[in-house]
Backbone:
């Protein structure tokens, strides 16, 4: 291999004999010094990916360690397709994703499937090529099976990557712009998410948006009245400033439509952000990602998004997590260490990390105090919308209310847009009436030596089955620790969030096995 380093040529298996080009993964598996492997990887030109023996997809690996970690956590039997976008998800992710996926446009679902296939291919193809192949499958009324598609495209790639210049084996046809009627390649045609999937070249797409904005009209498809979504505006081939102007204009026009038609909407709770989107089902809770500031929040309560918990449960879980971190953790390990010397290591680790725990506890105390103040304010000033159960505030005037805005317009917030009477609305009942000193978690009794085992649930720290208390992050799709890994791992998670300048996450303490967490089967 030194000859490749000296000549700066791509690594091959016995050059001149079989001439097989080594991939980055192939090079990383060679029994060579790390420095030589690093230099060889820099010379690799092929983008061929290795195949995972578990899920049978082709994944981007550069080291044997990364491959082994993926293979250990990969379970093909624990994956199922989303009924909306056809992408494969773990069973514990599927329900959450489905609620999100059925609230996005068909174009977004199609793009999600294209991105999924692209990330699993053996050879790199362009999104246009994959889109064309998927459309051919649909035209031939074939089932969109990700594994079969990846296998076929792997054969295509083997064919095309043996020639001097990469070429997609299928001829990608051109399309005619629906406005100027010019014949353009797929790369130069934009397909709208409307029912008829109208197609415009990017020049006509831009002119259509500019004309509508100058005419004070909502930005729509250049042929029909389908309203453009954020993702479609992002596809415009214009400057960043011009794209921002289109976004801000569309947001304002969307606001006006909601006010005039009393429809439900979801607004980003970030005070400095004006992003808004129509709520197809304003009574359904799902994860919302702001397309403007990337803020993630709950569609109902507007707080940091929470998995596997209702909006009402978040407050109580936050209280109990604060109590555990502030007082119960230390007491728990002291009692355990007195009864069983094997727990002394956890107690020693707790005492070594007192400074880090103190910093986190102060952040949790600040969060808890804000939560308590918010609950007190809502109890005194707010009631619940009788339709979507969102918290609403009466700002004065008559008792006629519209969920999500002032009755006579303005001050738009997330809401279902339904009319109701303030005097008849249910008062908001605070969940934090109990003083924090009186809150206790239902922890295992110290004298009970029989350990609770959460069967088939593995800790993300030690990768063993969880025993004792199970700690589940309610703000992550799946993050679980056992009681022995909890302090070390949650502190690392907390520090990572702090560096990213994100709000701290809350963990739920689970002391009895639950069906909800059946995952990661061996």
Residues:
């Amino acid at each position: 291999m030194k000859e490749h380093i000296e000549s700066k040529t791509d690594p091959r298996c016995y050059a001149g004999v079989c001439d097989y080009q080594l991939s980055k993964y192939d090079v990383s598996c060679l029994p060579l010094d790390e420095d030589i492997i690093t230099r060889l990887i820099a010379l690799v030109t092929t983008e061929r990916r290795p195949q995972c023996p578990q899920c049978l997809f082709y994944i981007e690996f550069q080291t044997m360690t990364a491959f082994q970690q993926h293979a250990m956590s990969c379970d093909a039997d624990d994956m199922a397709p989303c009924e909306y976008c056809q992408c494969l998800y773990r069973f514990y992710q599927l329900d959450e994703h489905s609620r999100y996926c059925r609230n996005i446009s068909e174009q977004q679902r199609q793009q999600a499937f294209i991105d999924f296939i692209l990330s699993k291919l053996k050879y790199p193809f362009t999104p246009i090529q994959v889109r064309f192949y998927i459309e051919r499958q649909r035209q031939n009324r074939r089932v969109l099976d990700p594994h079969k598609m990846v296998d076929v495209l792997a054969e295509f790639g083997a064919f095309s990557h043996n020639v001097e210049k990469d070429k997609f084996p299928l001829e990608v046809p051109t399309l005619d712009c629906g406005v100027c009627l010019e014949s353009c390649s797929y790369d130069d045609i934009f397909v709208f998410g409307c029912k008829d999937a109208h197609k415009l070249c990017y020049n006509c797409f831009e002119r259509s948006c500019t004309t509508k904005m100058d005419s004070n009209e909502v930005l729509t498809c250049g042929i029909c009245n389908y309203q453009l979504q954020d993702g479609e505006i992002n596809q415009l081939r214009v400057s960043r400033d011009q794209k921002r102007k289109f976004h801000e204009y569309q947001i304002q026009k969307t606001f006006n439509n909601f006010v005039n038609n009393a429809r439900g909407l979801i607004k980003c709770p970030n005070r400095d952000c004006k992003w808004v989107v129509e709520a197809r089902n304003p009574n359904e809770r799902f994860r919302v990602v702001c397309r403007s500031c990337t803020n993630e929040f709950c569609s109902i309560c507007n707080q940091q998004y929470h998995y596997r918990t209702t909006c009402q449960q978040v407050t109580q879980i936050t209280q109990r997590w604060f109590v555990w971190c502030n007082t119960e953790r230390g007491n728990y390990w002291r009692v355990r260490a007195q009864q069983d010397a094997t727990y002394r290591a956890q107690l020693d680790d707790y005492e070594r990390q007192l400074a880090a725990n103190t910093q986190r506890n102060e952040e949790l105390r600040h969060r808890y105090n804000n939560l308590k103040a918010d609950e007190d304010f809502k109890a005194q000033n707010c009631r619940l919308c009788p339709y979507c159960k969102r918290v609403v505030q009466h700002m004065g005037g008559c008792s006629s209310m519209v969920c999500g805005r002032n009755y006579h317009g303005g001050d738009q917030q997330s809401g279902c847009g339904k009319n109701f009477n303030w005097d008849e609305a249910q008062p908001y009942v605070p969940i934090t009436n109990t003083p924090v000193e009186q809150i206790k978690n239902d922890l295992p009794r110290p004298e009970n030596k029989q350990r609770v085992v959460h069967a088939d649930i593995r800790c993300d720290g030690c990768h063993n089955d969880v025993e004792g208390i199970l700690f589940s992050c309610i703000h992550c799709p799946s993050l679980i620790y056992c009681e022995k890994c909890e302090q070390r791992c949650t502190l690392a998670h907390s520090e990572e969030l702090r560096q990213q300048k994100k709000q701290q996450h809350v963990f739920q303490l689970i002391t009895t096995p639950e069906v909800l967490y059946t995952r990661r089967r061996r």
